[in-house]
Amino acid sequence: MTEQDFAVPLEAPRYYEPDPSYRERSWIGDYRAAYQKYLEDPGEFWRTRAAEIEWFEPFDRIMDWDFPYAKWFLSGKLNITHNCLDRHVRDGRANKVAVFWRGEEGEEKVYTYSQLLRAVCRFANALKKIGVRKGDRVCIYMPVVPEQIVAMLACARIGAVHSVVFGGFGVGALNQRIRDSGSKVVVTADVSMRRGKAIQLKSIVEEAVVNAPSVEAVVVLRRDRPKVELHSEMELDFDELMENEPAVCEPEVMDAEDPLFLLYTSGTTGTPKGIIHTCGGYAVGTQYTTKYVLDLKEDDVYWCTADPGWITGHSYVVYGPLLNGSTVFVTETTPDYPDPGIWWKIIQNYGITVFYTAPTAIRMFMRVGEQWSDRYDLSSLRILASVGEPLNPEAFEWFYRHIGKDRCPIVDTWWQTETGMHMITTMVGEPMRPGFAGRPIPGVVVDVVDRDGNPVEPGNGGYLVLLEPWPAMLRTVYKNDERYRKYWTTINRVYTATDLAVKGHDGNIMVIGRADDLIIVAGHNIGTAEVESALVSHDAVAEAAVIGIPDPVKGNQIKAFVILIEGHAGSDRLKADLRYHVRMTVGPIAMPSEIEFVDSLPKTRSGKIMRRVLRAKELGMDLGDVSTLED
After folding, report:
1. HSE (CB half, 13 Å, CA atoms) of 174?
2. Does the pLDDT of residue 520 top 80, yes or no?
């Protein structure tokens, strides 16, 4: 990789300075001082973080590192649900709201911490009654409902390993995950609601378990009326199963290195990887980052729009916020149903103070215009946050101006399923640079290197790597340790994130996008995210996706699929204007040879663009597994 491939644009960097009160009130305080303190004594840093959760038995060592395997908080004993529930009930939060839930049609459920603890204990006892034991795998395939959270916590309560599968996956993907994990029980619902339509989940599960011999029971949350019929030989009703169970279930004593959950990566290419996270390190990492990165306070009402079927939902909808005794809002509602104002209405009505969402959603709102957000009072918002993909400068600016009203810090977070917790961000109170995620958080050491592991000069691009182990790191890939080792052996004994990045002269890091989202044009590596960001920076473009198409001379040419902002019409003149805009923004090698105006892009329901679908359609190839597609 050379400077020719990736470089930061030469214009003077722009920063946004938050009000000084944010730094004064933040948990982190002075970022540079906090980071230096970590570097001076990493062990003491993590010992202090670990002291913020309760241990049944204390650990005797912080970490053992036998490359590439780490163990954290050795000999420590705990249960993550004791930390999420029991201690809060004991310490005065019994009647504090733990979870607000809103359905698509406005129906609501509220769980206080004491109510959530009782529900979790009942379902934990129900799982034990049907034969689930410590170490057994339980597949959870559900919509975004409170019972999904109850099921996750109930598994953790008894030491069962939950494998949550996103409710948008189809039969084949679900079967693959059930079979690979050897799940003993599947917990599901009859339907999920999506834009006013009932999506049949139970029928998908029925097909998925046909060739899954490990499954002994299917537990069904029956939401629809009249209630769907259950097959008595295997299927059990969720509510009936827990109805007569006692509301007390002592938490299983777990070793810090016992597995907590198994979560499969989305598998857009190759076989999905079952990422294993463990009880102690994951609890410490998510408790710390939720508190210090998102700066959650006792009176916050926090909303992360992620589905618990993904790692963001695990870490920052369920475990991290509950570990901190926070009030969490969850909803089945999509951002544009019944209209594009629904999320802003929710923020107004529930008094949301910390709002964590994806750049894809932000760009959708940009496309429909700020007239929707302007209808609602968003003054409760204190902090905005972003996750899932690089937050391009244009989306940052819109989010900051129209949702944050020029006053809310934006916490743009970079991390992965594999990392389990935040790695890079701009901590609350620090100057924000649009387009740059920020710096490594205290506790994390990162760099940007070339293929041989040598640090690149500031302003140039390379591979984003992590130099030291961290508590919430994956421990292995389930039944495929060689894939785990590859993370640490691809480049010179460091963790390779497979993401491309640029380190600015100021130390801030811009994440370009996945290394496998590269288009090689005439020997030059072009990041899809870089070209897409350039297109979106044009005032006529709402969203864009680019792919490589074969070229006999250059190897590949770039084709762009562009969604225009309402009020703009596609034309040859606009295509020429966009090509010139990319040339001036990125360089002539990145200019699309072809531009197609479209009304929508193929996306997963979590909002990620499925470029392989565009590529397959363009080349007349089989689309492969598209069960995660939004439409």
Report:
1. 29
2. no
Q: What single string gives the DSSP state of each residue in 589-607?
A: GG--SEEEE-S---BBTTS
Contacts of 387 (CB under 8 A, 6+ apart): 304, 306, 312, 316, 356, 357, 358, 413, 415
Q: In the block, which residue shows the tokens 């939004």? A: 630
**pLDDT number for residue 2:** 40
**Residues 50, 284 contacting (CB under 8 angstroms):** yes
Query: How confident is the model over 566-577, as a mean pLDDT?
Result: 93
What is d(CA 7, CA 4) in angstroms, rounded to the nearest whole number? 7
pLDDT tens-digit map of 582-605: 887 777 778 899 999 999 998 876
- Mean pLDDT throughout 475-502? 93
The residues, any chain, with a CB within 8 Å of residue 526's CB and separated by 6 or more, are 5, 518, 519, 520, 558, 586, 589, 590
Q: How does pLDDT run across 260-270, given as a tens digit for each residue? A: 999 998 544 45
User: 555: part of which helix (H) or strand (E)?
Assistant: strand 555-564
> Nearest CA to 501 among 454, 463, 457?
463
Give dist(CA 452, CA 493) in Å, integer: 11
CB 279 within 8 A of CB 153: no
pLDDT of residue 297: 98
* Domains of the chain, earliest start first: 20-55+278-513 (3.40.50.12780), 80-262 (3.40.50.12780), 517-619 (3.30.300.30)
